[in-house]
Write a structure and sequence with these properties.
2 copies of one chain form a homodimer. Chain A is an alpha/beta fold. Helix content of chain A is 40%, strand content 12%. Chain A is built from 16 helices and 11 strands. Chain A has an 8-stranded parallel β-barrel, surrounded by 8 helices. Chain A has a two-stranded antiparallel ribbon with strand order 5-6. In chain A, strand 2, helix 2 and strand 3 form a beta-alpha-beta unit. In chain A, helix 1 packs across helix 2, helix 1 (35-47) runs parallel beside helix 14 (393-410) and helix 2 runs parallel beside helix 3 (103-116). The two termini of chain A are 30 Å apart. Chains A, B: One of its GO terms (molecular function) is monooxygenase activity.
Chain lengths: 441, 441
Amino acid sequence: MPDQLLLAIQIANGYGPQPGSWRMPGVDPRSYTDMDVFARYAQAAERGKIQLVFLADTPALENDISRAVPNHSIDPLVVLTTMARATQRIGLVATASTTLNEPYTIARQFKALDVASHGRAGWNAVPTSLPAAAANYGIALPPRAQKYQRVHEVVQVVQALWGSWERDAWVLDAERRQFADTDKIRPVGLQGEHVAARGPLPIPPSEQGQPVVFQAGGGGNGLEVAARYADGVYANPFSIAEGRAHRDALRAAAVAVGRDPDEVKLFAGFMPSIAGSRREALDRRRRLDEVVDLDQRVGYLGSMLGLRLEPAQLDEPLTADQLAAARPSPGDPRAPHALQVAREGWTLRDVLAHGVIDYHPVVPGTAEDVADHMQAWFEAGACDGFSLAIDVYADGIDAFVDQVVPILQRRGLFHLDYEGPTLRENLGVPDQYGLDPRLTA
Amino acid sequence: MPDQLLLAIQIANGYGPQPGSWRMPGVDPRSYTDMDVFARYAQAAERGKIQLVFLADTPALENDISRAVPNHSIDPLVVLTTMARATQRIGLVATASTTLNEPYTIARQFKALDVASHGRAGWNAVPTSLPAAAANYGIALPPRAQKYQRVHEVVQVVQALWGSWERDAWVLDAERRQFADTDKIRPVGLQGEHVAARGPLPIPPSEQGQPVVFQAGGGGNGLEVAARYADGVYANPFSIAEGRAHRDALRAAAVAVGRDPDEVKLFAGFMPSIAGSRREALDRRRRLDEVVDLDQRVGYLGSMLGLRLEPAQLDEPLTADQLAAARPSPGDPRAPHALQVAREGWTLRDVLAHGVIDYHPVVPGTAEDVADHMQAWFEAGACDGFSLAIDVYADGIDAFVDQVVPILQRRGLFHLDYEGPTLRENLGVPDQYGLDPRLTA
């Protein structure tokens, strides 16, 4: 097991992952378009020595924003370039779809971000699964197998383009009047079934050579992509057992293609809500829930617990009879935790405020509670680190940085400072330039 | 004729448009990848109240960089976002190919830049004519007619996406718990022969509504694109007569589609080399020419003048016999000016240092010389302004801003300050949001 955990922080829309984050105290409701806000959050995360900022992305208006914040940023490249200008060490990672983008565009934009940030960029290489995003590009989603075939092609073309300048091609010898050694800048000339590019890409190596590749989702297909190309994987386990199973499978898949399993780091999604006490944290989350349809959520909670629940019971706990009859639904991995919370006697409103049906594990509580959860997962081998989805960025990032990070550091679980200027150094992943030679041998 | 001229400044590769700019005194040879340098140049241009920075672009390594700088930047969006963070007023415009990009990507990235910069973005909408760029996208260039058909489709889809949120759709009413009025955010559902997008684009209007559209090149096809969609046109006339002809044609084409011709501004490409005297300016350009194959240029100069010239004559002027025999080639619009310079008695090396075979008119001389040239062109109706390709950015931008701008201002030819915070205000072009209703009526 690695000595210390790694931290990624999601700063997508400018508000936070909770739908009601835009209405919270201290939040500028126009944060979505205000790059000063994004710069400030990146600086706060860097103060906490967090390894990287991660912007998930889908090129579409994915969710209903009549009451809720949009899921994603206005544009990942604009946001990450803004953050690059405001920080010195933190890594800058975003999703770009392999289904909807051509590899030359991805290669150029992420490599430009990488040299602009002096070696801090990363690319989360994922296919698109949202039909609305495909429709924005005038196409229907291809079948899954074809989409994943294209992922492999796109990543290989992108990495080949990244390596199309030899490391010492940029000569800059003023006396000999030589700007570059063009014998060392060569086309890649790759032609796949789905994509192709001649190259070269006219960008020299960055301080880390080229951007780090990440992967997310996709089951067995995704695992194969991660094993072959990724140094970081964003995963969504709901329990330690799920996290261990995913991480073990990932490491085995990496070994199967000849890699050292320690090269591939699994980041588990995690949503802390930090306050002075669990009660205060629940009140914070109840305020966030004001834009949410709780009646519908009560119904869903019932289905998770094998009960028929009505909105009228929102401010009551489960009865003894209900608790006796409850059976966690085998179809929802969050169900056992929901039942455990319900057994503690909270009202249904508070059970929901615990985030039991959120899309990552939630810890509402003190900084110690949050640190305890992270330590337990990490020491059980459920992850190499966490991808933090902090409820409200405006005060939540500071709370994490100022309260949780020092606890993790005191416990020896988190680094005291950045290891170096590049993302590769700070993740502890190996140098890479161009295609991985192990994959082309 | 408009009262005052407009200025765009090209800051493409970080060095300057001259191949040898990377070797000049005070130039950091690593400027190509150093965003601090780009930020500084944008700030200098803003000090001079220049209306906009323009980054031409082709997604390929277009030129031989063994001795010369690359033609373009590492990535226009990364560079312009960097500049947006470093400035408050100057406009930020770049080329994005309508041949190689999907409209959703262009719409999103330029609109994101537009809101991030508080209404200062512009998009130069041009098809790609370089086969190597198409090969980077795995395609062959389509026939010209088809490429221009696609330009129309892409611009219309992009502008429709830009307008897919009604101006007041972003409600942000915390009390009523309403983030956005989703009845006012609608798909665009456009389907052309070449491109399509469903939308909506999840970005609210910027302070100027949406980015300004620019156009460049393309002859009659390009003129039609400019007349229908553009507020600014980048042109390359070599003489006042050529500039007037282009501008008159552009204005007539705008009128023909029902627009006010003053909505479309023609920027003439112009390369000043500013020094204490013409001799000093020529020496500056001779140093720039050290990386250039002058033997080959002498031969080309001869073909422009209807003479057979040899490299041995490089440091001699034309003889009386040669001058008597010289006939400007009708195939090169730069030839009359080349002959005029040669008649002044300069050596061939100095004739070439005058930039007579450069791709824009060159004025090597004092700030007064440069201002005189600009005044003459502007007052003759050859342009609405200039797109400055200043020989070496490192000291040339400051020289232009500190020496030429005050002369133009004293002569009443250039504004004393920005008219407002948006690019539209500073260009004096009308508000636009979504598709131009005159085109869809």
